[in-house]
């Protein structure tokens, strides 16, 4: 009996329990307030999301399979499926996705939405639930992106053979609706970034002689129609063009006209951004079919000059670590056979400094001299800018054009000075007379002080 009494005495009273509970509740409230002051709401949401994703993915590992879409494949070629998947998933973003990347891009009517890293999207395909998870990784190869898709193990073959093809077809159908060409620029290793290509130049608007334009168009038509010929003769289905001549003669406009004529995307490759032979090969491999690879001002890179003059330009190539042989191999060697239906265009202001190995047929198949403006080219400019076919001053202007060196770009600048045809043509005449006067004075000086 005494032991029972002793035990009863050890039981705390109701008032003591209430006091303890009150003290505990107060402590919890203080801890919660301190937590919210220390941990911002956004960080709390982010941590909670990470924990949910971690435990849900762990729980599913036993009965679920996971495919990983990485941004590189075997360390060389860019994995196109990651861009396709990101585009597809942007159409699946729903109310459960609390953090969304948005933007307004040139040529797009509305706002574009994108998936942020750490976010999850659940897609349903023929009754199969597929969970997508997007994130970034950092390793010895640098920073990259990857996407995981998780599904029940029993649907593995269906996801691989049907669902992923559905994703690719959806992406293709949606992008084809846009009917907009793209221009790509290499921003980092093995990755191209693009914007819409809106250059309005066509062969009709080029200030170039008709016969030259026709020969270029005929060559492009022949290239498109000879797929079987290239295959039968064992050659890569590609074509190389060298555009050479002084600045302002329309090289860039011709490239734009070629892209619009062929309906090909443009890849602007700056050799200064190439760090090694491997980087160059990887970059060239990551160019799609039906594309024009443009290497502008190739004479500015000392690696493509005549090898006999290499010492003269050595100081300009300290930071360039790819070789001419690697460039040639990508254009007309074993590596060139890895991609088909492509155009390669080089532009230069000084053809004479380029290594002859770069210029031979098979590498640069057609050499196009972009000359100073001709009378025929001037007629095209006048039609484009003023909408007229004839003028009383044309005969005098034609004589001056034949006697001086004036680029189409410089004459276009004069034509843009007024919408009044008489005023604009008068500005061109004044400009050409000044060019002729400068030429005559230069000739007199040279005659008076011969070398």
Distance between the termini: 133 Å
Averaging pLDDT over every residue, what do you get?
A: 80
Give the C-level CATH assignment of the largest domain: Alpha Beta
> Counting H and I runs of at least 4 residues, what is the number of helices?
15
Strand order, largest beta sheet: 10-9-12-13-14-11-15
Radius of gyration: 33 Å
Cofactor: Mg(2+)
Catalytic activity: ATP + H2O = ADP + phosphate + H(+)
Pfam family, one: AAA_assoc
GO molecular function, one term: ATP hydrolysis activity
Describe it for me?
The radius of gyration is 33 Å and the shape is elongated. The protein has helices at residues 2-10, 14-38, 41-60, 80-90, 156-178, 210-225, 227-232, 251-262, 277-285, 324-332, 356-359, 375-386, 394-403, 408-415, 421-448; strands spanning 64-70, 72-73, 77-78, 100-103, 112-115, 120-125, 128-139, 142-152, 182-188, 191-196, 238-244, 265-268, 291-295, 342-348, 366-369. A seven-stranded mixed beta sheet has the order 10-9-12-13-14-11-15, covered by helices on one side. A four-stranded antiparallel beta sheet has the order 1-8-7-6, with helices on both faces. Strands 2-3 form a two-stranded antiparallel ribbon. It is α/β, with parallel strands linked by helices. α12 (375-386) packs parallel to α14 and α13 packs parallel to α15 (421-448). The chain has three domains: 64-179, no CATH class; 193-302 and 320-369, Rossmann fold (3-Layer(aba) Sandwich); 375-448. Helix content is 45%, strand content 20%. The model is unreliable at 308-318 (pLDDT under 50). The protein is built from 15 helices and 15 strands. Belongs to the AAA ATPase family. BCS1 subfamily. GO terms for molecular function: ATP binding; ATP hydrolysis activity. It catalyses: ATP + H2O = ADP + phosphate + H(+). InterPro entries: AAA+_ATPase, AAA_N_dom, At3g28540-like_C, ATPase_AAA_core, ATPase_AAA_CS, Mitochondrial_chaperone_BCS1, P-loop_NTPase. This is AAA+ ATPase domain-containing protein.
């Amino acid at each position: 009996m005494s032991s029972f009494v002793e035990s009863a005495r050890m039981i705390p009273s109701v008032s003591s329990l209430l006091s303890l509970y009150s003290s505990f509740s107060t402590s919890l409230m203080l801890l919660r307030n301190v937590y919210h002051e220390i941990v911002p709401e956004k960080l709390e949401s982010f941590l909670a999301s990470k924990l949910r994703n971690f435990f849900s993915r762990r729980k599913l590992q036993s009965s679920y399979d996971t495919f990983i879409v990485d941004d590189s494949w075997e360390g060389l070629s860019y994995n196109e499926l990651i861009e396709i998947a990101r585009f597809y998933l942007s159409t699946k973003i729903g109310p459960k996705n609390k953090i969304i990347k948005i933007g307004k891009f040139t040529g797009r009517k509305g706002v574009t939405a994108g998936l942020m890293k750490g976010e999850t999207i659940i897609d349903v395909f023929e009754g199969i639930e597929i969970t997508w998870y997007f994130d970034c990784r950092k390793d010895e190869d640098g920073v990259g992106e990857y996407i995981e898709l998780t599904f029940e193990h029993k649907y593995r073959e269906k996801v691989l053979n049907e669902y992923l093809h559905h994703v690719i077809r959806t992406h293709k159908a949606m992008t084809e609706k846009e009917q907009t060409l793209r221009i790509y620029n290499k921003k980092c290793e093995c990755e191209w970034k693009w914007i819409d290509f809106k250059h309005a130049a066509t062969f009709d608007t080029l200030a170039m002689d008709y016969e030259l334009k026709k020969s270029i168009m005929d060559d492009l038509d022949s290239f498109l129609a000879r797929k079987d010929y290239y295959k039968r003769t064992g050659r890569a289905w590609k074509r190389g063009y060298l555009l050479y001549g002084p600045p302002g003669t329309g090289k860039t406009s011709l490239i734009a006209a070629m892209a619009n004529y062929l309906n090909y995307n443009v890849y602007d490759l700056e050799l200064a951004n190439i760090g090694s032979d491997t980087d160059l090969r990887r970059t060239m491999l990551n160019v799609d079919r039906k594309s024009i690879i443009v290497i502008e001002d190739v004479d500015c890179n000392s690696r493509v000059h005549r090898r006999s003059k290499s010492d003269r330009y050595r100081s300009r190539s300290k930071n360039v670590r790819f070789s001419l042989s690697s460039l040639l191999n990508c254009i007309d060697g074993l590596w060139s056979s890895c991609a088909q239906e492509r155009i390669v265009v080089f532009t230069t202001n000084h053809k004479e400094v380029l290594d002859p190995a770069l210029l031979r047929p098979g590498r640069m198949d057609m050499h196009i001299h972009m000359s100073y403006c001709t009378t025929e080219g001037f007629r095209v400019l006048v039609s484009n800018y003023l909408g007229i076919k004839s003028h009383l001053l044309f005969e005098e202007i034609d004589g001056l054009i034949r006697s001086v060196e004036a680029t189409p770009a410089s004459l276009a600048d004069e034509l843009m000075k007024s919408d009044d045809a008489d005023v604009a043509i008068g500005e061109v005449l004044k400009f050409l007379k000044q060019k002729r006067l400068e030429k005559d004075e230069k000739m007199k000086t040279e005659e008076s002080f011969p070398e």
